[in-house]
Write a structure and sequence with these properties.
five-stranded antiparallel beta sheet; 11 helices; Outer membrane efflux proteins (OEP); alpha+beta; elongated; 9% strand
Length: 483
């Protein structure tokens, strides 16, 4: 065959090579119960208070389950004003811009660089003639360069950018879920501080009355002065605890202000007197959790992106074909510049292949494979951690509900004991130490009852967060829509 006959043959081979498919992607398996199987349930779901049949799934505004108007109003401000969420959304827009940047590689590059210059060569230059004069150079070039995507490099880079953008979209939802859950968590901590303060304020009134009774009895000579000192000590200790509660409450209020995009001094939340209780939360199935958690979806999309990087590393072994053309007008004067005889052009392909790189491409391929293995491990670990979080909060809610019932009985017994001991003290049958002990036990049980309710509310928020807050992977933008 002649040299010319090889040209179409090479072009045909390169065109067929362009049909090569990228590395096939299969979502990695995660150890979870299969859908619709008898074992597709959470281990700690036994005894759990299930939601009504109509409440089969969480909704996006999940905080409304708690029925607290103040919480609802605060949560509405997160999407509008929180700076962490704005930063996550900006990173997503940046990822979308990279899709357009990489997609531009599918099109030719056209550049134009007109120039006008006056040129005079030196008479002392090598081989210079004695009669050299200044000349003009008027140039209007147009350069066109195009690299056909024979091996799918550009297509894979675009797919990689789209998968990274999908991961960025999931990151936005993950940040949104974290922020809303953190605000609800802080809000219920603040409500608990208010409840503790109300309890301590009521307790202080009781202790003041006890100090008044003891002081009167001492004045009558019925009790020693030590009883007065002990009653005053009990009162002052409770006052210290009540004062300390205000510090915690202020800190939670400041945290809520920052979550809603405000300076701490710009937000004031009144004392909450509502009796919010943990709602019934639709848990769903473990096999559905992978589609409900935005952090899991982000990890899975990064696995897909790592798979594309393997294809890109393999494509580096194949040659690149560049089609280039240059045309334009060049003249020695303005009058001759834009005339037909001033035209010039050059066109031709160039094929480049790396013959030796010291193992660089092999190292890149091995690095891409290692990165893929790492992202798969991160994806599986993220999923396992999600299952753990759901199980942890299920057992916490179930156990705390029983614990609160037990604590209510203990609190009632402590109050009854305090009443009996106080009456016996007034009658002179018991020393004041018995009253002090009964007061301490009653207060400890009352505070513990409030603390158990706080833990139940916190566990409810954490369970909703662990379940994804009503988000689903179907909400991710499709690759075809990302541009």
């Amino acid at each position: 065959m002649t040299r010319i006959s090889w040209i179409p043959a090479c072009c045909l081979a390169l065109a067929l090579a362009g049909c090569r498919h990228p590395v096939a992607y299969v979502r990695p398996a995660v150890p979870a119960p299969p859908a619709n199987a008898p074992g597709d349930t959470y281990k700690e779901l036994g005894g759990w208070k299930r939601a009504q049949p109509a409440e089969t799934a969480l909704r996006g505004r999940w905080w409304e389950l708690f029925g607290d108007a103040e919480l609802n109003a605060l949560e509405e401000q997160v999407d509008v004003s929180n700076q962490d969420l704005k930063a996550a959304e900006a990173r997503f827009r940046q990822a979308r811009a990279m899709i357009r940047y990489n997609a531009a590689g599918e099109l030719p590059t056209v550049t134009v660089a007109p120039g006008i210059a006056s040129v005079r060569d030196s008479n002392h230059a090598p081989y210079a003639s004695a009669n050299r004069v200044a000349t003009g150079d008027f140039l209007l070039p147009l350069d066109v360069s195009y690299e056909p995507d024979l091996w799918g490099r550009v297509r894979q880079q675009v797919a990689l950018s789209r998968e990274q953008a999908q991961a960025g979209a999931a990151d936005v939802e993950s940040v949104r879920l974290i922020l809303h859950a953190e605000l609800a968590f802080d809000y219920f901590e603040l409500c608990n501080a208010d409840a503790q303060k109300r309890l301590l304020d009521a307790t202080l009134e009781t202790y003041r009355e006890a100090l008044r009774v003891t002081t009167n009895r001492f004045a009558e000579g019925a009790v020693p002065k030590t009883d007065v000192a002990q009653a005053r000590t009990q009162l002052e200790s409770a006052s210290v605890t009540a004062t300390d509660i205000t510090v915690k409450r202020a800190q939670f209020e400041h945290a809520i202000a920052v979550l809603t995009g405000k300076a701490p001094s710009a937000l004031g939340i009144g004392a909450n007197a509502t009796g919010v209780t943990p709602p019934a939360i639709p848990v769903g199935l473990p096999s559905e959790l992978l589609e409900r958690r935005p952090d899991i979806a982000a990890a899975e999309r990064r696995v897909a992106a790592a798979n594309e990087e393997i294809g890109l590393a393999r494509a580096a072994y194949y040659p690149t074909l560049t089609l280039a053309a240059a045309l334009g007008l060049e003249g020695h004067s303005l009058t001759s510049w834009l005339t037909w005889p001033s035209r010039f052009w050059a066109v031709g392909p160039a094929l480049a292949e790396t013959v030796f790189d010291g193992g660089r491409r092999r190292a890149t391929s091995e690095a891409a494979l290692a990165n893929y293995d790492a992202t798969v491990a991160v994806y599986r670990q993220t999923a396992l951690a999600a299952f753990q979080q759901v199980e942890d909060n299920l057992v916490a809610l179930r156990t705390l509900e029983v614990e609160q019932q037990q604590q209510r009985q203990a609190t009632a017994s402590a109050r009854e004991s305090l009443d009996l001991v106080t009456n016996r003290y007034k009658e002179g049958a018991d020393p004041y130490l018995q009253v002090l002990a009964a007061q301490s036990v009653a207060l400890a049980n009352e505070r513990n009852e409030l603390d158990i309710l706080r833990r139940r509310m916190d566990a409810s928020v954490l369970l909703i967060k662990a379940l994804g807050g009503g988000w689903t992977a179907a909400s991710l933008p499709r690759q075809a829509d990302l541009r």
